[in-house]
Design goal:
The complex is a heterodimer of chains A (about 1000) and B (about 450). Chain A has about 1000 residues and is mainly beta. The longest helix of chain A is centred in the first third of the chain and has 21 residues, at about 1-20. Chain A is globular. Mean pLDDT of chain A is about 90; it is low at about 5-20. With about 450 residues, chain B is mainly alpha-helical. Chain B has a domain at about 50-105 and about 110-280 and about 345-435: Serine Threonine Protein Phosphatase 5, Tetratricopeptide repeat (Alpha Horseshoe), CATH 1.25.40. Chain B has helices at about 1-20, 45-60, 65-75, 85-90, 115-135, 140-165, 185-205, 225-245, 245-255, 300-305, 310-315, 355-365, 370-385, 395-410, 415-425, 450-459; strands at about 80, 170, 185, 270, 295, 315-325, 330-340, 350. The chains are: A mainly beta (about 1000), B mainly alpha (about 450). Chains A and B meet through β22, α10, β25, β26 and β30 of A and α1, α2, α5, β2 and β6 of B. Chain B: Keywords: Cell outer membrane, Membrane, Signal. Chain B: It comes from Cyclobacterium xiamenense. Chain B: One of its GO terms (cellular component) is cell outer membrane. Chain B: It is found in: Cell outer membrane.
Amino acid sequence: MRNIYRFSLVMFLSLLSMGWTHAQYSVSGVVTDERTGDPMIGASILVQNTTKGTVTDLDGRFNLNFDDNSPATLIISSLGYLSQNVDVSPGNNTSLEVSLKEDATNLEEVVVTGLASTVKRSNLANAVSSVSSRELTGTTTIQTTDGALYGKVAGANIRSNGGAPGGGLSIQLRGISSLIGASQPLIILDGVYINNSFQRTGRATVTGAGGSNQDDGANRLADLNPADIESIEVLKGPSAAAIYGTRANAGVIIITTKRGSEGRTKVSLAQDIGFAQPLRLLGVDGWSEEKINTFFPENRRPTELQRFRESTGTIDYEDYFYNNTAVLSNTRLTVSGGDEKTKFFVSGNINSEDGTVKNTGFDRFSLRANLDHNITDNIKLGVSSNYIKSNTQRGFTGNQNNTGASIGYNIAYVPNYFDLRPDENGNYPVNPYFGENPIAVTDNAVNDSDVQRFVQAFNLDVDLLRTSNSFLRANVAGGFDFYQNSTLVYLPEFLQFQRGQANPGDAFWGKQESFNTNFQAALVYNFNWGKVNMNSQAGMVRLDFTNSSLFNRGRGLVPGQTNLRQASIQEIVDQFNSEVQEAGVFVQQEANFEDKIIGTVGVRWDKSTLNGDPNQYYAFPRASVAFNVANFDFWNSSVLTQLKPRIAYGETAGPVEFGNTFTRLQGANIGGLLGSVVGTQIGNTEIRPETATELEFGVDLGLLNNRFSLEATYYIKNTQNNIQNLNLAPSTGVNTTPSNEAELQNKGLELSLSGTVVDRGNFNWFSRIMYWQNRVNMTRLGIPQYTLGGFGPALGTFYYAEGFAPTTIVGTPADPNHPSGFTVWGNAQPKFNASAYNVLRIYNNLELSFLVEWRQGGENINLTSFLSDAGGTTNGWFGDDNGDGIPNGRQRPPEPYNNAGRWVQDASFVKVREIGLYYTLPKAALTNTFGNALEGVRFGMSVNNAFLFTDYQGYDPETSTFGAQSVANNVDIAPYPTPRRIFFHVNLDF
Amino acid sequence: MHTIQKYIGLSVVAGLLLFSCNPLELDQIDDPNNPSVGSVSENASRSQIQFLVTGLESRHRGYVENVSRAWNTFGREIWYLNGSDPRFQTDWLGQAGRVPDRIYFGFGTTGGGSWANPYQAIRQAETLVSATLNTTVLSTEEQAAIVGFARMIQGYQFMIPANFVYENGIRIDVEDPLNPGPYVPYEDAIRHAQSLLLEADQLLASAGSGDFPLTLTSGFADFTSLDRIREINNAILARTDIYLEDWQGVLDALDNSFMDMDGDLQAGPAHPYTGAPDLFNPLFYVRDAAINTIVVVHPSVLADATPGDARVAAKFFEREEPVIVTTDATPLVGTHQDNRWPTNTTPIPFIRNEELILLKAEAHAQLGQTDLAVEAINVIRNAAEIGDYTGATDLESLIDEILYQRRYSLWAEPWGHRWIDARRYDRLDEINTSFDQGTVFRQFPHPQSEVNWDIYAED
């Protein structure tokens, strides 16, 4: 029996090899770039419906042998180019010359759809936004990666806390997914779940501003060097992100860094030098004796009049503090290359930027090594290592209480005839208008953060099985992200406010550590089932997150000392540790019928120690289908070359906050003893994650041979089990318990039209216009309506009730006819956003690109002018627009005057975010001058935040004193003015 | 073929390895930062009970900052001038006709220090009582002492929300967080406080003699024995009885209290503030500090003072530079600051001998025992160096005099005496608002969260 089996096997194999020896032909060819005519290295040639293929060599050539004489279709492709299909047979097309066209509309781009598989954009059933390194950093130099995404992702609302150097941005994808916390997208860097949290610095504690959300700390995506990034993919909602499960409610941002490629070793040095100045200042109001007599109380007037008369000149404090020129420098060195077996990409980056406010700045040192090695033909290992050191000096802006340690808050009260500058002996005068001299703070106080970070990723691919029409691959991937953030906020003992304290001098030290690890193992099986290519995958995921923080404070300091042991009052302000474990399994099946119908179904099951029941699996299914109508044989239009209706559905979740299940006995010190006090939260041991379902449908069109493309998407995202604190009757001595009651709905539209408007030999104009809008509605609240956020109804707050957007701004005066009991003054949500990105290329050497964003609608609560009105310094304060004898600053419309409505302002704007102009030296000129020493030289200049057009009465309509929050992220309190950054660039390739 | 087998073999080994330390298995993660409330519900140890007692002292002072600043502003004993947030002026002084709503500034949705905090002390006391009664490590006498102490604090704390919302009434059945009882009128609320104090009195009496079985902070420095704690309890009871107009009750309670007509008027238990890791005295401000946020003496208190009053000299510190804060309505000028606290670690008394003597005067006056009333008044007057009382001795005159003396003797104590006194004698209109053009509030509505709970519970 056994022998018979062996015999037939031998017979079968010899038959196969006979066919192979007797019938074969080969196809050879060369692949070039259509525009430049240069040969293309590494272009891929794949035989359709098989796993057979090859790549082009250094001269763009390839050769492919066929086992038999049957005709085949070759798919010739290269990253960033439109692929071409060529039919070959023994007598036809055996010697090819193929020129590939640039993929201006990104149809060929590969997009991540599973945890271990990818799909071509033209086959995608979701609206996944991709941002290439060209778009991300090609126009100008942006400090942080999230800042480089502004206006480049339809459906993303990005907002900066302020203009302080070192980041501090929040991203909302497709509206509001959660009512609590920051609700930020999950960020995955080369497969590693990286920490992007906003970190406490203690600024809000030391300055009295309030909770740590008013620290204006940076989010830690700031550590990543944007120039290392090859591409960013944004999975905007559950329909695309379902396979990421529990942490994907707010979307997923997948960042892939650059890697080496086979060929000559390339050394590239880039230097940017630039300067920054404030984008917009508001001016301050002047003073007169008449104004003094109006503004100041009677018994104060003589003093003020005397000061006014004796004043030798006025000082515009806004100008003094903010209108400085900061020097910016960014140096990047990359070395990349490799051979067949090993490829490498090494990059170093020194980013050194001053802020426009004295003694502020951001320095980042980053070192990256990405290695790929083929251990055998079947085993590929990739590792990515990144060490970063970021130092941020953020200075003192934003909210404060009593301490005066905020420039904008403080100078709102200082008239321009009073001189706060130090005398020749360096003594700062006492500020009689506020509790502190802001010049002394700016010159001497410290608000620094020092981050050391290491991110390590690995990826192991093992080809387990490969036949002519199937393969089985195992993928094991993961990594870790470790960082330590040391922060210091220091107010020296000689400051005016400190001198008024019992223990002058305040040093607030923080140490925060975060260690995330993730691990994933998957099997991918790809086979052809008739004309349908099937791709199956199954795997598991494990995530571990540990965080610890320790904050100490010393007051009553020895002069000039910040060490805690030099403090008479030494205090442990907070110690907090947390540990989270999560695990999940997933399966996904994709089916592709000749690129005509592409369907995907998948499920992920997750559990987490954050949930009430840590052992319960929650299921997150997805399903999608796309029809490439233009690929069917009956389609015969030369105008509409792509027509792809698509529909996708998916479910995801948002994690429960750590500690929601605990009912605590907290420590409380009193009179030298320690007490245990009953905490004010009752833990909910049945808490579930917030879940979201999303239905997305749309159509993608390719016009005129895909020269233009239009992507239109409509989505309906419903979230359930939204976590919010159920307020208990405070008379029971407890205040809250987390609840899963609320439900939200976000509906929105995203449009993207892109294409090459002009394409002539020496002039090429690419343009992309995007439009997006979102409408959020609380479909169920489940608990009694409430207002929350901001500074209460008198200054504008947010209304949480069924049938209303939680972004609704309400405030005084009371309006009994509205269910909130207050007047509705606005809505933080924009009516729509639109952006335009243009690249113009002349003679292949000169390139101009620019990006403009327009946001229409959406109100801010502008309390910066609330402060300057109280201090009489708002520009135009003493004018009298309605001529009733009361100055503007004391009578702000709408009538009845001086209610919350006066601070709620339309934050519509048009911003020219990026402009870049680059000149690449022609190759011939280069060879003539430098011989072979230089491969390429590029010069350029660029502007970031070039122009702002808005009626908004603030430094920047995009600001948030409370940092990243799902709601109440539009409150403006004396922020750091946004800088305009102008750069000069030199790039040298060796 | 061989390589494939090798890989399959390898992946089986890898698979086995994975399952030996199963990556899908999650550890049990307990709170790494705090013990749970459940840890003391059964068989608590003696040290756990001690921590709960100290915790009760901590919760017991939760009201001090808010009540001192806000209620004393309502009663125009002080202004809390705040250069950074004008609402401490505009809202708390009721400028431009502002009236308290359910989420009034400074009180939030929970009523903050005037509502939620006292109820947290009440809950803490209840947790202490149940832990004490559910453990075997304490003797019956020790249990009585601890429960008595807890009931005393509850009696004290119930008066705070009651006085905050006054005629709107408060909840007194608050043990079950998910099922709080109905609101009862002001009088019933104070009567509930009284009954807790009476229960405490019995428990403390039955706890034997000697020292309180657990350690109390330095706030109870002269009151460590069970007898002395009982005297505090009766002092609080006298305050309760005054609000109930149970004049004889006041006198009876005072008899059992630490009142001493010849003793130190300052004597009494206090909330300690010893500095980090403890808090600092929240009412302390450095003298003459060049700051724009500070509690200042209300100008009417200075204007109405009797020349030579030693209390004025002792309690009010005249600043070199006045503090001025501008508001929508009118600028506020503070010339004097609080001089009662030598340092930022000075404890804040919560009931003093001086108040007890004034309670005695009031009760006697109300009972028509004029001589005894005047005798008590004179103790106060002589201590203030303004001589014996020479005015009329009819009830109204005596009450006028007693309320006047209370303004200076109990100035800005963490209770809002002036506001409560003016209200119980229907004299809110006598509070001087001419310096700030504001209005005087009568009471607050129930905080929004309280109302919301009822709406939620109904659904």
